[in-house]
Write a structure and sequence with these properties.
The protein is built from five helices and six strands, in the order βαβαβαβαβαβ. By secondary structure, it is α/β, with parallel strands linked by helices. The protein is globular.
Length: 152
């Protein structure tokens, strides 16, 4: 399986990258220094694209660009989409917009070829990496689910 991880150097992205490597997947990691076009050129030919970029609109740009490819996209969301963090209003708004668009795309298959999963996470969800791994494995086989919320 060819897996592209955007934001794979720490946190949940790092854990998912390591997990797919353990499963003998061909994993390519991209960070902040990677150009948008470079990431897209590799991601559009992958099996799974993990979109774990910081909330500055970047995640939406990748999703809008890759939604027309026959790939699986896992998007790292946040509970801040529903419960805004007063100390991070831009982050919260970005995650809210991201959530709304991902749900819209995943429910309208005629405008989106990609299967998309939104992982709505808390800051401590990374501690439950085994549950997250099991959830992703299930989704890869049953991609009719469009959002999983971790409240841990």
């Amino acid at each position: 399986m060819k897996v592209v991880v955007l934001g794979g150097t720490k946190g949940i992205g790092q854990l998912l990258s390591a997990y797919f490597k353990l499963k003998n997947s061909d994993v390519k990691e991209f960070g902040k220094s990677s150009s948008f076009d470079e990431v897209v050129s590799v991601a559009k030919t992958c099996d799974v694209f993990i979109c774990n970029a910081y909330a500055d609109g970047t995640q939406l740009n990748y999703i809008e660009t890759l939604k027309d490819y026959n790939i699986k996209i896992i998007v790292s969301g946040s509970i801040a989409a529903d419960s805004p963090d007063p100390n991070m209003p831009v982050y919260s708004l970005d995650k809210k917009n991201l959530r709304e668009r991902v749900i819209e795309l995943s429910q309208s298959r005629h405008t989106c070829k990609a299967d998309i999963l939104l992982l709505t996470l808390t800051g401590t969800a990374v501690k439950e990496y085994q549950t997250i791994h099991n959830t992703i494995d299930y989704w890869l086989e049953n991609s009719t689910i469009n959002e999983i919320r971790f409240t841990i």
